[in-house]
Amino acid sequence: MSGFLRFIKNSIVSIAIAAVFFIIGNELYFFDTRPLVSPLAEKTQLIIRNDLYGDGYFSARRSGRRLHTGIDLAAAIGTPVRSVKSGWVAVCRNSRGSGNFIEVYHKKGMVTVYAHLDTIKVRLFQRVRQGEVIGTVGKTGNANYKNMQAHLHFEIIQDGRRQDPMAWLPGIKTQEKPLVINAERKQRIKAH
Ligand SMILES: [Zn+2]
After folding, report:
1. Where do the structural domains in the chain lie, given as residue ranges?
2. Which of 51, 109, 110, 154 could make an SS bond with 159 (beta carbons 3.0 to 4.6 A apart)?
């Protein structure tokens, strides 16, 4: 074999080896250690919102016969929001209802949604790790009522169907003391 051919052969072998290590390294870097992690900071208790404007359960009633499509996790404005699994940022933008929101696509047909964010800390198509901070809790979109608690609106969509995230995230609590009287609340059930 001529020197030139040997050089080509060695180069191809080197590139192939480098590619294999790159792919393995990449997979390890984005490896999920748990099925899902909390969408809020690791040690934050997950609490379902319950305020003047209704409660934050999955399928809770909303105005115009709509049902709540996710859960509302009460948290202070600025609380870090994390991707529950590794994946790709498929949507990050602002809409009238959801405010600043992010959709992350995961493997095996799962999509997670994070809405009413104060800030978005990722770019479109960015790959994110499990637990990586992607934004912060806010009151944007239709969460922007004075007496509505700041919260993360969180959704899980599996194979195109919305799931109750409570079934996926253990240890979620309901707020112990309802903040308002039901009669007043009923008139205001709307929005997220
Ligand atoms: Zn909501």
Report:
1. 1-31, 47-186
2. 109
Structural fold of domain 47-186? Glucose Permease (Domain IIA) (2.70.70)
Buried b (16+ CB within 10 A) or exposed e, 80-107: bbbbbbbbbbeebeeeeebbbbbbbbbe
Model-level pTM? 0.85
Burial of 131 (0-12, 13-18, 19+ CB in 10 A): buried
Summarize the confidence of residues 128-148 as an average pLDDT.
93
Residues 6+ apart with CB under 8 A from 62: 54, 68, 189, 190, 191, 192
CB atoms under 10 Å from CB of 163, counted, come to: 16
Q: Each residue of 2-28: pLDDT tens digit?
A: 899 999 999 999 999 999 999 999 888
* Cα 48 to averaged position of ligand 1 atoms, centre (Å): 10
In the reported structure, the alpha carbon of residue 28 is separated from the centroid of ligand 1 by a whole-number distance in angstroms of 33
- To 10 degrees, the CA torsion angle through 17, 20, 25, 28? -150
